[in-house]
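Me: I'm a chemist; would you kindly supply a protein sequence with its structure tokens?

Assistant:
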Amino acid sequence: MSIPKTLGFPRMQKEAGEKRFFLPEFIQFLANFGVTIFLEEGYGSRSGFTFDDFCQGNEAVQMCSRSEVFQQDAVIVLRSPTREELSTLKRGSCLVSMLHFPTRPVRVNILKDLGIKAISLDSIVNGQNIRLVENMKAVAWNGLEAAFDVLEKRWPNLTRPDGEPIQVLVLGTGMVGKHAVDAATKLGNIERNNQHIQNGGPGVLATAVGRNITTKPAYLEKLFRQSDILVDASQRRDPTRTLVPNEWLSWLPEHAVIADLAVDPYTPDAIPPVVRGIEGIPKGDLNQYIFMPDDPKWDATVPKEIPSKHRRAVATCYSWPGIHPEACMHHYGMQMEPLMNVLMTKGYDKLSLDGDYFERALYRATLKAWVQASHPVHKLHRE
């Protein structure tokens, strides 16, 4: 199978509170390629959409069970299926999803063993290594808005007791880091920032640091001690090594809030284990993305072997863009249309770096390209 004849769209059920789904206009766009589209029963229902909204009288769009949706020639879902669901995919079928090859070595090996032709949406990049399918602005703004919400409960009108500007430290200067600086200087919310200015508020001073500083504890200690919000927007080259050991969190003031935008996983069963950038912080979801230091649910999300003694309030969500699901999926749909046009007209097997702009970008995101690149993470063993 090269060009898929059937497409499956499963509901995302991996996390509580997940409401995202590909919108009807994206489904109809794909139906124009002459394929049969199978939507899992209840697709979009958490946001009030019905099957008729997706079908629009087009017989090529059908409803099916969850088990059936994973049996199609190509399966398209924003968040990666679970390990059990991956095992139900047809050998030789195509999976289009956020698969995170660099930080999911176990998943990479499972996909290889199952013979799945995978395309990782987060690996679709142009020749300058800039992602073409991303919502990093939403990651930064939604995360910073949540962090400032916590701080505002402690400091009404976001005014420090000493009247000085709020200090925000951003770890990472990539795309998420740049958006984080922008969001921080506007209090994570334009309307709140406008009100803050009208009230004569002290404002925000945002500092962003890259790898040449994050590897120097002495410098970081000085920055941590004066930070009101610490933002992890890092892109680690080695996901098996933490960026901020838990002990360093003791440098932060007691009132400080950590905004976790990297939301890397804890994967203790990988060899070597994959750890989070900031050691010992919990992992939130769309149902709960604020954790106070005394939250009883903290320990449930952190493996026992991970140090977590030093704690501060944390805003953390594995799916920050999902806070506003429809806006998020409209954004992704627009970005994916030209890429899906390539896949639906050329097929997975014929993708190469000799094609046009979008074909080259799509090829870079294939599992076969990842394996051929012999990335260091690929050498990690599966469990």
Summary: The chain has a mean pLDDT of 93. The first helix runs from residue 24 to 31. The first strand starts at residue 6 and ends at 9.
